[in-house]
Design a protein that fits this description.
Distance between the termini: 24 Å
Number of domains: 1
Organism: Aliibacillus thermotolerans
Strand content: under 5%
Family: Belongs to the EamA transporter family.
Membrane topology: Multi-pass membrane protein
Radius of gyration: 19 Å
Subcellular location: Cell membrane
Helix content: over 70%
Number of strands: 0
Shape: globular
Protein name: DMT family transporter
Length: 306
């Protein structure tokens, strides 16, 4: 149950990521991504330094998976989203994000031999359909009228990046200390993103990062999506596996909708309420596991960890 609460909170934080990202969207994408991970690095430095020093031999030995985790989940997933939004609509991005659970399940079956059973498949279908219903406000005309461009290709990269990150978490995250590993991954992410952000500043001039609204937005992104959400997501994936964890991402459009109503004064329609209910029902169905399935997963988890 605790893992599911972590995953719900993660979806809530990632919904705030979309809302805040929209608010500071005039900043270039790699500038947002860099200052986001730089802020997170400053926060994690006093928290994770001791663990990082104590486990440096582990980091040296397992540097390949650590590098892969840092580049996929910390550095480039959200960077791809920010870049995609420069070329395509938020609707396209949201709809493509709704494909993450399905892609995750396919990859998990291929690489983790993970399985869903019976009614859980119905839950997957319901959660994806419900997310699409919220995004399109119940109008399939929105999907029929979509035009795809380079931004959508970038979003495919974002989807694959996040799925790979989730699978890497299941295979390798148990090897590393929570706070020390996040600090090291943030260092790697800063090194990877700084040269790209520097190119943005050279070609377009240094953006107004230090305006109050932008600074507050970047601080939020650095604390919540970059630190708290990553820790909670990692714990959730380790507990229930990538397939079930990914279903909770379909809460993101629901929470985004609620945030838009409360914070931006947007209205909410009946179709969106129906979609939210369907998402919740789908998640509840997907997270139902018989005792036998739970034992199987626990046995496989202990085998991987040993």
């Amino acid at each position: 149950m605790k893992a599911y609460i972590f995953l719900v909170i993660t979806a809530l934080i990632y919904a705030s990521n979309i809302l805040v990202g929209k608010a500071i969207n005039e900043l270039p994408p790699y500038t947002i991504a860099f200052f986001r991970v730089f802020t997170a690095f400053l926060i994690m430095l006093p928290i994770g330094w001791k663990q990082a020093m104590q486990h440096r031999d582990v980091f040296k030995k397992e540097w390949k998976p650590l590098l892969a985790l840092a580049l996929t989940g910390v550095a480039f997933f959200n960077t791809f989203i920010y870049a995609a939004l420069q070329f395509t609509s938020a609707t396209n991005v949201s709809i493509m994000e709704a494909a993450i659970p399905v892609v995750t399940i396919v990859f998990s079956m291929l690489f983790l031999k993970e399985r869903l059973y019976g009614v859980q498949w119905l839950g997957v279908i319901l959660s994806v359909v419900g997310a699409l219903w919220v995004i399109t406000e119940g109008s399939w005309q929105v999907i029929r009228n979509l035009a795809f461009n380079i931004g959508d290709i970038i979003m495919i990269g974002a989807i694959i990046t996040w799925v790979l990150y989730s699978i890497l978490v299941k295979f390798h995250m148990h090897k590393f200390p929570v706070y020390g590993s996040l600090l090291v991954m943030l260092i790697i992410a800063n090194i990877a993103l700084f040269p790209i952000a520097l190119i943005e500043w050279i070609t377009g001039g240094f953006p107004p990062v230090f305006e109050t609204e932008h600074m507050l937005g970047l601080i939020h992104l650095g604390i919540f999506p970059s630190v708290i959400a990553l820790i909670l997501w990692n714990k959730g994936v380790e507990a229930v596996g990538p397939s079930q964890a990914s279903i909770f991402l379909n809460f993101i459009p629901v929470f985004t909708m609620i945030g838009a109503v409360l914070l931006l004064g947007e209205s909410i329609g009946f179709a969106q309420i129906v979609g939210a209910v369907v998402v919740i029902a789908g998640v509840l169905l997907t997270t139902r596991r018989e005792a036998k399935e739970t034992r199987k997963w626990a046995e496989r988890k202990s085998t991987v960890s040993s």
